[in-house]
Design a protein that fits this description.
The chain is mainly α. It has a domain of 150 residues: Cytochrome Bc1 Complex, Chain D, domain 2 (Orthogonal Bundle). It has eleven helices and six strands. The strands form three sheets. A two-stranded antiparallel ribbon has the order 1-2. A two-stranded parallel sheet has the order 3-6. It has a two-stranded antiparallel sheet with strand order 4-5. Helix 7 packs across helix 10. The longest helix is centred in the N-terminal third of the chain and has 30 residues. Heme C binds next to helix 7, helix 8, helix 9, strand 3 and strand 4. It holds the Pfam family Cytochrom_C. Keywords: Heme, Iron, Membrane, Metal-binding, Transmembrane, Transmembrane helix.
Amino acid sequence: MEPSRDNPMARFSAFWWGLGVILLFFVVLFITRLVTENEAPNPLEEAARLKRLEVRAKVDEDQKSNLTSWTLSEDKSTVKANPEAVFSLVGKQLVASKPTPSTDPAQVVPGSPTAEKLAAAPATDTAAVDDLTPPAGTAPDPAVMEKGKQAFLVCSACHGQNGEGNPVIAPPLAGSEWVAGPVSNLIRIQMRGLEGPITVAGKEYTLPAPMAPMGAASSDEDVAAVLTYVRNSFGNSAPPVTPEQVKMLRSEVGKPALKVADLIPVAP
Ligand code: HEC
């Protein structure tokens, strides 16, 4: 062992030094306390305290008016429901509640008022979106391409790593006239999904499963990036897609899956 630690005198003095430091700490604490004790209360803290009291009083009041439905047990540890009062309270709320119509395509009943309303929704102004497409020859931002490449991993599960498609899963994106065509088509497919049959690069695809709305839950930037990537990879070359364009078509989310007839036709 180290000689200094082995030395009883050194240990003894270390003990008293430690004790001294702790005592000093308490003395400083005590003095601080004395000095600050008589200060006027902080007006902000006081205002917050009064507000807390006010909220508390209101909560107590609300709870009291609700207590007809509930009874406190003798020792106040448990709350017992008063069935009749509870049933009438809950019943009134149920009767007053209205079902919320769902616009989730998976839940819309065909022929229901919601389905009719969705079908009759005003046509989206796709021309305004396509007018914002940068001119032909505009190079994509490399950072956006990198982001799009990451996002494309999901698409590649169906469309293939190089957008080559799969005869029984999804049509190709490489050399697809849809990919090079109007941007509004591509964004709407991301927002609503797509149901075939669809002809891509001269071949008709009638696939067992439609494409799901892949972009509904992604940010405008991510959707724009993945579409920009697809339009500038696998031999494709078309102007980038901007987040503003994606934003303009967010209203498409929730509408039923698109059919090819809903898209702006493209020349093969
Ligand atoms: C679950 C499989 C699946 C995934 C994942 C998927 N798609 Fe699709 N996609 C399809 C199918 C299937 C079609 C054709 C519609 C049909 O036949 O019902 C299609 C069609 C398309 C089309 C139009 C046709 C074409 O080939 O040009 C584009 C563009 C497209 N998808 C882009 C994408 C992008 C971008 C992603 C990733 C964000 C993606 N898809 C993810 C299955 C998928």
